[in-house]
Design a protein that fits this description.
Blueprint: E1 2-9, E2 15-26, E3 30-33, E4 38-41, E5 45-59, E6 62-75, E7 91-99, E8 104-114, E9 130-140, E10 145-152, E11 160-168, E12 177-184, E13 189-196
Antiparallel strand pairs: 1-2, 2-5, 3-4, 5-6, 6-7, 7-8, 8-9, 9-10, 10-13, 11-12
């Protein structure tokens, strides 16, 4: 069961603003299981949140946008292990600028932030936040031909894309050990693209 109420306005010239309050009740959360690499059903939960967005177009070829979201996620069935939902991110933000033209130079940049999240039900272990910036620039010769360069992870952040906490056992270990397992973000990389539209 879910519900949402929101407001959107364009009363300010060249600006659109939006805000929404929402909630979602689930009969069962799906959680990642490290040993099997799959998901399994768990307890009932409630998620509540606020989302705010802004879109600004100061010039015909310039767009600036921002989105921020806060979420409170909790299990609703009582359990001594705790009420936090593992890997339920509590805050997310994105800010970007785009320069677009039919021909000539174009480009943009985007900042993406994911806040920390509980990794276990009692909130005793948490993931770190992540922050990445991507940058793009290029030249559009016509509607049919363009060249661009994109830099991913501009500042070469050493954050983790995803983090889990579960038990694993390495060769030589007598018993399984609970620990953080993660997938790091890709290091700084550059992509050169030539686009031909027919």
């Amino acid at each position: 069961f879910g519900a949402e109420v929101g407001l959107r306005t364009a009363i300010i010239p060249d600006v659109q603003l939006s805000a929404a309050l929402w909630m979602l009740d689930l009969d069962s959360e799906l959680l990642f299981t490290g040993d099997g690499g799959s998901t399994e059903p768990s307890r009932a939960s409630r998620r509540e949140g606020l989302e705010v967005g802004a879109y600004y177009k100061p010039l015909d070829w310039v767009v600036i946008d921002a989105d921020v979201a806060w979420t409170r996620a909790r299990y609703t069935d009582p359990d001594p292990v705790g009420d936090r939902i593992p890997n339920a991110v509590e805050s997310v933000a994105s800010v970007g600028v785009a320069l677009t033209r039919t021909t000539g130079w174009f480009g943009g940049a985007r900042l993406r932030y994911f806040g920390p999240a509980p990794l276990v039900e009692d909130d005793s272990v948490r993931s770190d936040s992540t922050l990445q910036v991507n940058l793009e620039g290029g030249y559009r010769f016509s509607r049919h031909l363009s060249v661009s360069v994109t830099v991913f992870n501009l500042f070469d952040a050493r954050d983790n894309d995803i983090t889990y906490y579960y038990e694993s056992q390495l060769p030589g270990e007598s018993t399984p050990v609970g620990d953080i397992h993660f997938h790091p973000v890709e290091p700084r990389s550059i992509r050169l693209a030539v686009t031909v539209a027919l």
